[in-house]
What we know:
With 247 residues, this protein is mainly alpha-helical. It has eleven helices and no strands.
Amino acid sequence: xxxxxxxxxxxxxxxxxxxxxxxxxxxxxxxxxxxxxxxxxxxxxxxxxxxxxxxxxxxxxxxxxxxxxxxxxxxxxxxxxxxxxxxxxxxxxxxxxxxxxxxxxxxxxxxxxxxxxxxxxxxxxxxxxxxxxxxxxxxxxxxxxxxxxxxxxxxxxxxxxxxxxxxxxxxxxxxxxxxxxxxxxxxxxxxxxxxxxxxxxxxxxxxxxxxxxxxxxxxxxxxxxxxxxxxxxxxxxxxxxxxxxxx
Length: 247
């Protein structure tokens, strides 16, 4: 635990030095939300105000952008020689990776708060009670944790920090091919099956229903199952890849 806390503090300091990446993770989702709501929202009909519909998708997009920094940071550590120094001081791999994940969670929480603030300014009005807010926060945190560990595994799998940047494009695709921005029924038939059966759709539906006080059905449990599966795979992959890269 002491090693993990030390590595977390180190990753926070690294984040403050990567201002371009940090600003991208914080401001790009806000810019995309304003773009969709203010420019395209009038042409997209979802049965409700578009800012109300699109906010969960923007929040999930935030997670992807924030986690992408983790993939790059882990890759930089693996290629920069710092891992050998840590191992000579008997700092174990899980503590190093946990530091990156903790920093990712903090970045995503800050980004989420910023997006909520801007959404409120452009007429988003949630109808959730305290239990629904807690459930929505728990789902979002589970997704952040799972995707952050997946980003760490991706950073270990690639050879260069430049290649680790590809993680952003991979995770950015999923929200667009889901119910996060438009209803699945409006998509071409050949992609509807994928859009319905991937992690972002039940997450977006759950967050939307919880924040608006509408029925969510089994979507939260499906979303939690996806998050648990991603987390289990990411933890196993990161452990195996770290051992292979440092052996």
